[in-house]
Amino acid sequence: MFVIFILIVGLIIGSFVASTVERLAHNKPFLSPRSMCPHCGEIIKLKNNIPIISYFIQKAKTVCCQKKISSIYPIIEITSVFIFFINFTLFSGQSLLIISLLTTVFLLIFFIDFYYFIIFDNILFVLIIISIFSFLMNNFNPFETDIYYSFFASVGAILIFYTINRIFFIIRKKNGLGIGDIKLIGILAFWTGLSYLPYLIIFSSLLAILHVIMNKYILQNSNDILSIQSPYGSYLVTSFLSMIYLKNILVTFA
To answer: What is the pTM of this model?
Structure first.
């Protein structure tokens, strides 16, 4: 029953995230009451909108107009199930609530940035609200940082990354980081504090570099290696979440 419960929760959250990613990325209403076909706009019936199952039963095609359904839907839904399985395994009580809210926001950030290279301010605003609630009301502080050090880490990270971005712009005549990336690193640095911020920067940067290398030499991207875009925001939230999981595992089994 426990596994079934996690599966249902993960699929529901994953379905929400997948539809929200597509709506935000294509400038569609976020609070649309019903899911619509992205091709013809017809309302999707509930029986044709079951997470993962509908995708494979319909052979990745819409029922209404027989157009291809993006693979982003099952990918997000399966990822969500995996993430929430980890959440329910490692956390409980109020900590489980906070980590579940965080991972939902992180899934949105990861997939929007990974596929569309953008991080929306309204999503970052939600992340700020969760962060404030966690620090002031819930006391979920996975990196055990002091709020004053968190403030300095946040401001310092924003200034450092903004400066790096300006230097890159002067040299290359284009931005090396998006403004959304800089805002995101500022929010995450508030969580990590000064002690864990270097790990976040190193891990996320390594993933971003690996992304570029894979695009250039494995996927045979013809662009100059410095011109290949890397969704740095995606790798920031991936590194941050991995650090929380790893720290929790080390504390639990120490």
So the answer is: 0.91
